[in-house]
Design brief:
By secondary structure, the chain is an alpha+beta fold. It contains 13 helices and five strands. It has two domains: 133 residues, Beta Polymerase, domain 2 (2-Layer Sandwich); 102 residues. It is globular.
């Protein structure tokens, strides 16, 4: 899908990654994520689209159907897009707002496995020293600190977010402990300290699941009804006008 068409059909766009977590450093890349509604021929015809991707900044705009499927599966990187702070919402049409307002439909106790699973992946990356079984992409951090401190930061963030959402029913993308996470990123904690903290937090996630106020399953029926509404209204929607297109181009690199 060409960028112009993707932006014309975009209904929701946010800052993601470190800029949304509150852990961005001066040289941190900007990640932009969002949702688009495919035009009629892409939705009903022979062509299919799952997402648009761009670089500089790193842009991924998901077709609504794929976004909903990932959100219902509890994908942390997708769900957090709906829970960014308002100041991190770069663009939203009324249809995009409808998805944001319905964000709690996607939350359930099934978030346990995705959050723990993604955290475990970061744990493996944090201590990997060769290419056997794991991709090592931050050998400079391992050489300097003895472990991948960026992976460690994400490990602790994911476990804290997982414990929090399971215990409270709320997902906070911008992290109140951002300063502590940046200390981990800077290597101010030893590897054993990080591993001990991760073990404590994993126990907190387990305990949070046992008392979670979230329903056992996400509200698939309501989410599907919302998706149908988006597609039905999207078929009648002419797309973003020129003023909105100018804004969208400015935040996605021209």
């Amino acid at each position: 899908m060409e960028k112009a068409l993707a932006l014309r059909r975009t209904v929701y766009l946010v800052r993601a990654g470190s800029h949304a977590y509150g852990t961005a450093l001066p040289g941190s890349d900007l990640d932009v994520r969002g949702i688009l509604l495919p035009p009629r021929e892409w939705l009903l015809g022979l062509r299919e689209v799952e997402q648009f991707e761009g670089r500089r900044p790193d842009v991924v705009i998901y077709a609504a159907r794929k976004f909903f499927r990932l959100a219902l599966a509890g994908n942390p990187g997708v769900l957090e897009q709906l829970f960014v702070e308002e100041k991190d919402v770069l663009f939203a049409t009324p249809l995009g707002r409808a998805v944001r307002e319905g964000r709690h439909l996607f939350l359930s106790q099934k978030l346990y496995n995705p959050f723990v699973g993604y955290a475990t992946s970061q744990l493996k990356q944090m201590t990997a020293r060769d290419g056997r079984g794991h991709d090592v992409t931050r050998t400079d951090l391992i050489a300097e600190h003895g472990y991948d401190t960026k992976a460690a930061m994400h490990l602790i963030r994911l476990l804290r977010m997982g414990a929090e959402v399971l215990a409270t029913g709320e997902l906070r993308t911008r992290r109140p402990e951002a300063g502590f996470l940046l200390e981990i990123r800077a290597g101010r904690l030893g590897l054993e300290e990080v591993l001990a903290l991760a073990e404590e937090l994993r126990a907190e996630v387990d305990a949070a699941l046992a008392r979670s106020p979230l329903p056992p399953e996400p509200d698939v029926a309501a989410a599907e009804e919302l998706l149908c509404r988006l597609h039905e209204e999207g078929l009648r929607w002419p797309g973003n006008g020129e003023a909105d297109m100018a804004l969208l181009r400015s935040v996605t690199g021209g």
